[in-house]
Amino acid sequence: MQTQMLKGILEGCVLKVVENDYHFSKEILEILNSHGFNNITEGTIFPLLIRLEKENLFEIKKIKTEYGPHRKYYRLNEKGKQELKNFEESWNHLYKTVNHIMKEE
Amino acid sequence: MQTQMLKGILEGCVLKVVENDYHFSKEILEILNSHGFNNITEGTIFPLLIRLEKENLFEIKKIKTEYGPHRKYYRLNEKGKQELKNFEESWNHLYKTVNHIMKEE
DNA sequence: ATAGCTACCTTGTAATACAAGTTACCTTTC
DNA sequence: GAAAGGTAACTTGTATTACAAGGTAGCTAT
Q: How far apart are CA A20 and CA A84, in angstroms?
C-alpha cells in the first residue's frame, strides 16, 4: 500500500526540490529521503526525471567533474514552475479532503 | 496527474467510511465525493471493494429492498480495522513529509 | 410486456513505483 | 598498463490501481 500511495505525489516533490536550484539525481534522492521518504531509489527517480524532461519542464546543465562521469543538473523552467503550481493546488485539495474524512469519528 | 495522486489513498478512505457503519456502494461513493473528491465513479469503487473483500477486511450484509436488486452492505471487521490503522499511520507520515518539502522556501 | 430505474459486476487501458541490471567514465593501486 | 573500485547515467520488466465503458439482472409503473 505504501508504494501505491506515492503515485503522482513523488513527481510534485521532485519539481519542488529543483524549483530554484540546480540538483543532480543523487542530490534529489538524498533531499527527498532526508525529508522523510522511506527509501526512494534510482529505479524510481530516473524514469521520473526522464518523464519530466520529455514534458519539457527543466533547464538542464551537464557538468564534468574531476571524479567519474558527468553530472546532469536539473532546474525548473517556466513551464515547470507552472506545473509545480498545479501540483500544489491539487495536493492541497487532496490532503485536506483526506484529512477531513479521516477525522470524522 | 490528479488521477495518479489518488492511488492507494482512496483505498484508505473507503476503509474509513465503513469503519463503524454499514454502507453500500452508492453511499460510499456519495460520502467520498461530498468530502471533496472530484468525481469518483463506479468503475473505481467496485474493483476496489472487491479487492478489499478478497483481502477479508469486511463484514458483509446483503439486504433486499423494495426497489430493485439487493444491496451489499460493507463494514470493517477486525482485520479491516487493523488495516485502517496501518493506512492512517502511513498517511500521516506521507502528508507531513510532503508538506514539509512543499514549505521549504 | 415494455420502459426505466437501481445495483452489482467485468473488461481493458494507462500511469507509475521499484527492483535489477547495464554502460561508461574516472582514479588508484599493483 | 591492467585490474579494481567508485560514481553517475540509463534500461527493462513487473505489479498495482484509477477509471471509462459496457453488461447483467431485479423491481416498479405504465
A: 12
Q: Which nucleotides of D are covered by protein (CB under 7 A)?
A: 6-13, 16-22, 25-28
Q: How many domains does chain A have?
A: 1
| Residue nearest D13, CA–C1′ metric | A43
Distance (Å, whole) CA B74 – CA B1: 30
A47-67 residue pLDDT tens: 999 999 999 999 999 998 877
For residue B67, give the CATH number of its domain.
1.10.10.10
d(CA A44, CA B68): 48
Average pLDDT on B59-79 reads: 90
Give the C-alpha distances (Å, rounded to integers) separating B8 from A76, B4, B91. 28, 9, 10
Model's pTM, two decimal places?
0.89
Domain carrying residue A37 = 2-103
